[in-house]
Amino acid sequence: MANYDYDVIFIGAGPGGYVGAIRAAQLGLKTACVESRETLGGTCLNVGCIPSKALLHGSEKFAEAVDGTLARYGVKLGKVELDLAALQADKADAVKGLTGGIEFLFKKNKVEWLKGHATFKDAHTVTVAGKDYSAKEIVIATGSSVTPLPGVEIDNDKGIIVDSTGALALDRVPEHLVVIGGGVIGLEMGSVWRRLGAKVTVVEFLDQLLPGMDGDVRKEAAKIFKKQGLELKLGTKVTGAAVKGKKATLTIEPAKGGASETIEADCVLVAVGRRPNTQGLGLENIGLELNARGQIETGPDFRTSVDGVRAIGDVIPGPMLAHKAEDEGIAVAEYIATGTGIVNHDVIPGVVYTMPEFAGVGLTEEQAREQAAASGSEIKVGKFAMLANSRAKTNHEPDGFVKVIADAKTDKVLGVWAIASVAGTMIAEAALAMEFGATSEDIAYTCHAHPTHAEAMKEAAMAVQGKPIHM
Ligand code: FAD
Ligand code: NAI
């Protein structure tokens, strides 16, 4: 048998690669992880999940002070001012603490960090900073980067046309921020800068925000964000951008065609999706081909078409989410070490961390109806408004609902959708229920603590059977 330097090398130390590497080492494999960034943690910890949540949390506190939310509770404030540098420093602290934490975990678990950019020499060898390293198995976990929009050139240094990384690092509150793309990044970052005082316009190609989410949730999202002062230009596309001095002029037109108009902005965020990182990896050296969407296809054990090479996370098909990448990291390590691993790709929750939060797991009502029609079955849907939930009402959080979708015959839960201040936390219950194959009756007869937002989940499940108590 060939003599390799390592049992396994992970390329990329994002939530997929770093979690996989730690798990592999825990399982006794000699493990290395290649990362070209200065810090570990990938997109998520450095320029994604964590910094965006730090700014969402901080900007929410600021908005509570400014919009009278705190005053309602008798918190008397003097003149409220924003110290953006302090907010950015808090964000940087969160990132530093967590990325440093991964470095500590690597040392603790004896995962070797190979610093630099990895390129495949052959299926068992990568070159990093001029040196070759071999492994029995190599796992590609290189993640994704922003999809560019032709005609709209991103320059994060100038800070006028930016991507999410630039939008996380602005040193000023824009007067007018135009967000191109009404998806997750657009709405999270749009919310941050709106709360801090910017006028925000969201230009979205489709007729609704948040593609992929349940239809009711998408409709409600438009209402809620409009109420919060975001201007929405749905069914609209950007056809070009020109920067002059500190201003950008965008040309927009109806997505279906028609007269064009221009909008001026001092900041433009391009957030039209992300694409897998596969360039510069030397995939041609190992004959690994990409699918039509530029992704690496794998089997259930994350094997690619090349023996000894597996792939996980944003670089393979599926939702581009940190927790999906993490679970795949654990599973691929377990497959390599033991021959089995588990990721249930049908039960991966998704959350938009705005206020309120938008969350879902499983099928949308539209998908469930379509599948039922195809198989000759039917579905039942139960909905419960947050307005009727005692805790949400007490906290002055009237927006949102919980919706439970179940099979009409078996009552098995097929999907759950929630809009609530803590929907991201609430959806974990639904994911667990679905993982265990629960029925809506199982949720309805599970005792939920009072007064909690989670009671809305129970009542929505009761509504599937036509009998909620509080509505
Ligand atoms: P990544 O995290 O992208 O990590 C890949 C790493 O590989 C990078 O560090 C890169 O430098 C390195 N790399 C690439 N090529 C090479 C090479 N050849 N050699 C060496 N190193 C290489 N998801 C959520 O679930 N929740 C959220 O709240 C959330 N918020 C987000 C907010 C923003 C603004 C963005 C942009 C994304 C957010 N995401 C969120 C998505 C999440 O960040 C990704 O799904 C996740 O990071 C994917 O993990 P990954 O390990 O596949 O790749
Ligand atoms: P997205 O896919 O969520 O949204 C992109 C939006 O841009 C879509 O609504 C799309 O219709 C629209 N669009 C595409 N081309 C357009 C055009 N030319 N003009 C106007 N609109 C256009 O992608 P986004 O927001 O960039 O996020 C990328 C990924 O990062 C997502 O897949 C998401 O999963 C992940 N992410 C997750 C977060 C979370 O879990 N909370 C937070 C941020 C990002």
Quick structural summary:
The chain is α/β, with parallel strands linked by helices.
Notes on the structure:
- The chain has 15 helices and 22 strands.
- It has 471 residues and is an alpha/beta fold.
- Strands 1, 2, 3, 4, 5, 6 and 17 form a 7-stranded mixed beta sheet that branches. It has a 5-stranded parallel beta sheet with strand order 8-15-9-10-11.
- Helix 1 (15-26) runs parallel beside helix 10 (322-338), helix 3 runs antiparallel to helix 5 (84-109) and helix 3 (49-66) packs parallel to helix 7 (184-195).
- The model has no long low-confidence stretch (mean pLDDT 97).
- The structure holds flavin-adenine dinucleotide and 1,4-dihydronicotinamide adenine dinucleotide (NAI).
- Residues 11-17, 34-37, 42-44, 48-49, 52, 117-118, 141-144, 164, 185, 277, 281, 313-314, 320-323, 325, 353 line the site of flavin-adenine dinucleotide.
| Percent helix | 25-40%
Distance between the termini: 68 Å
The dominant shape is globular
Question: What structural class do helix, strand and pairing data support?
Answer: alpha/beta
Q: Give me the count of strands.
A: 22
Instruction: List cofactors, ions and other ligands.
Output: flavin-adenine dinucleotide, 1,4-dihydronicotinamide adenine dinucleotide
Largest sheet: 7 strands, mixed
Rounded mean pLDDT score: 97
Rg calculated over all Cα atoms: 24 Å
Strand content: 15-25%
* Low-pLDDT regions: none
List the total number of helices. 15
Enzyme class: oxidoreductase
Family: Belongs to the class-I pyridine nucleotide-disulfide oxidoreductase family.
Domain FAD/NAD(P)-binding: 6-329
Cofactor: FAD
